[in-house]
Amino acid sequence: MKFKIPVFALVLISTGFSALAQETYRLNPGDILQISVWSEEALQQEVLVLPDGTISFPLVGIVNVTDRTPAQVQEELRQKLSRLIPEPEINLSVRSVGGNNIFIIGKVNTPGRFPMTRPTDVVQALSLAGGFTPYAKPDSIQILRRSGNKQTVIRFDYSKIADGKALESNILLRSGDTIVVP
């Protein structure tokens, strides 16, 4: 039996949309993790990622998890526990993404903090904020992005996007980004 791939699926594959779907979530302060070690009842805990980006787990101590994938943290826990427990089987799942937020301020109808439950670009975020007020300057939007102690400014011109130009400037947002609409 032969299968035909629908045309829309070919378009999604050829445009790189499938790569977007494969992006892995990175942990943030405020997230809640469920960690368990098979057959070790004392090593089953729900842990909060602290504001400094760390968690504390028995027999391991403090682990920095910010901007790491759950799989990376799970592997580090496995390595550290293997010193005390032969071949530990660890399960790590994200229970809550409480730290995955963006912020929108300025001349939008609903400024505030918005949780990102999926990859979100600038135009989608502006939509979450209810769009612009009549006094907004949509051609002078700035995205503030912090990486460690360094902050960068990314300029965004909504007017060009609305005209179908400069579509590459409609970037995916990262946790902690702040959109400023003057």
| Total DSSP E strands | 10
CATH architecture of the largest domain: Roll
* The CATH fourth-level homologous superfamily of the largest domain: Outer membrane lipoprotein wza domain like
In percent, how helical is the residue content? 10-25%
Helix-strand string: HHEEEEHEEEHEEHE
Overall 3D shape: elongated
Reported for the largest beta sheet, the result is:
5 strands, mixed
Structural description of this entry:
This protein folds into two domains: 65 residues, wza like fold (2-Layer Sandwich), CATH 3.30.1950.10; 81 residues, Outer membrane lipoprotein wza domain like (Outer membrane lipoprotein wza fold like), CATH 3.10.560.10. 20% of the residues lie in helices and 32% in strands. The chain contains five helices and ten strands; from the N terminus they run ααββββαβββαββαβ. A hairpin with a 2-residue loop joins β1 and β2. The protein starts with 6 loop residues before the first helix and ends with a strand.
Which helices and strands appear, and what pairs or packs with what?
Blueprint: H1 7-14, H2 17-21, E1 32-37, E2 40-48, E3 54-57, E4 61-64, H3 70-81, E5 90-96, E6 101-106, E7 112-115, H4 122-128, E8 141-147, E9 150-156, H5 158-162, E10 178-181
Parallel strand pairs: 6-10
Antiparallel strand pairs: 1-2, 1-5, 3-4, 6-7, 8-9, 8-10
